[in-house]
Write a structure and sequence with these properties.
Helix content: 40-55%
Largest sheet: 2 strands, antiparallel
Number of helices: 3
Number of strands: 2
Order of helices and strands: HHEEH
Shape: elongated
Radius of gyration: 20 Å
Structural class: mainly alpha
């Protein structure tokens, strides 16, 4: 189980990304090649003043059961340990342990 503080921090980041998404998109549009160099520089300065956690690249995929950030499987939304235990218990439809 991941530390509760890390899971809460991730939640705060997700909220902040949603809050600033429109503003970031508008500034990105202003930084296009169609804009003049002055407009582009102004947009870059405004983008730099946005909070760091408003950037979607700072988000991490986390296991929905344990909150673990590493070994995440996008197909199931679980970390590797949970994929293995739930597959063994038959809780993941269409997945079964292979043997050869």
């Amino acid at each position: 189980m991941a530390k509760l503080a890390l899971i809460e921090k991730q939640g705060k980041r997700e909220k902040m990304v949603k809050k600033y998404a429109a503003k970031r998109a508008a500034l990105k549009e202003k930084m296009s090649l169609k804009a003049t160099p002055e407009e582009r520089m102004d947009a870059m300065k405004k983008m730099a003043k946005l909070p760091r956690n408003a950037n979607p690249t700072r988000l991490h995929n986390r296991c929905s059961v344990t909150g673990r950030a590493r070994g995440y499987s996008r197909m199931f939304g679980l970390c590797r340990q949970q994929v293995r235990t739930q597959a063994s218990e038959g809780k993941l439809p269409g997945v079964r342990k292979s043997s050869w």
